[in-house]
Design goal:
Elements (H helix, E strand, L loop, with lengths): L1 E6 L14 H18 L6 E4 L9 E3 L4 H11 L3 E4 L8 H8 L5 E5 L5 E6 L12 H11 L4 E3 L3 H4 L8 H7 L3 H8 L2 E6 L2 E6 L7
Parallel strand pairs: 1-2, 1-4, 2-3, 5-7
Antiparallel strand pairs: 4-6, 5-6, 8-9
Helix pairs in contact: 1-7, 6-7
Length: 206
């Protein structure tokens, strides 16, 4: 099965701007991409990027928005899996669970309503990554009469979009992204019984 990894090589992780500047966000995005490629190393993934990128996998450049770029690939070939590039906790075992269900459409929900990974075996299925996309993808599968399965996986559910997400990376991550955060001074701080991410760098904490 073909596996696509969508990646923003131009201006990634804008919601992490309170913590990292643009160059740091690009470096962190690249670190997460490396973790995802490691988890997919037996599946020959292809990076679907909005600009050329130097990475350990073939790259297809498509400057369209995410939904349109992925749908162009689905129209060209199915079955196809789509695994997002910002999953710093993903492992090979988690990816294997994504491929286990024998369904026309398989979705792995992200925290907050997104779709962090999916498998499309029905050639008429199309994605829509706006808003609560996991709900929309379930509806889209039902609308075309496709069988549907959902994979409940913590390691597929956690993406790193906002500063609060970095807590999970430090607590549970063992790969390149977690090491990158620690090297930059990322630490956990407990306040009022809650853990929060803190960057131990003068003038740069959250």
């Amino acid at each position: 099965m073909r596996v696509l990894v969508p990646f923003d090589a131009i201006d990634p992780k804008r919601r992490l701007a309170p913590v990292f500047d643009a160059e740091e966000r690009r470096a962190f995005a690249a670190a997460m991409l490396a973790d995802v490629l490691d988890a997919l190393d037996t599946h020959d993934p292809v990076i679907l990027s909005n600009a050329p990128v130097d990475a350990a996998a073939p790259v297809t450049v498509d400057r369209q928005p995410l939904t349109e770029a992925v749908n162009a690939e689905l129209a060209a070939e199915t079955p196809t899996a789509v695994v997002m590039a910002d999953l710093p906790l993903v492992t090979g075992d988690a990816v294997a669970r994504l491929f286990e269900p024998d369904a026309d459409v398989v979705v792995a929900p992200g925290l907050g309503g997104g779709t962090n990974a999916l498998v499309a075996r029905d050639p008429s299925f199309r994605t829509d990554y706006h808003g609560a996309s996991v709900r929309d993808h379930r509806r889209a599968a039902r609308d075309i009469g496709a069988s549907l399965a959902s994979v409940d996986s913590f390691r597929l559910a956690v993406d790193a979009d906002e500063p609060a997400d970095l807590v999970e990376v430090l607590l549970h991550g063992e790969g390149t992204a977690a090491a990158w955060l620690r090297d930059r001074g990322g630490r956990l701080e407990t306040t009022g019984g809650r853990a929060r991410f803190r960057l131990e760098k003068p003038g740069r904490d959250t």
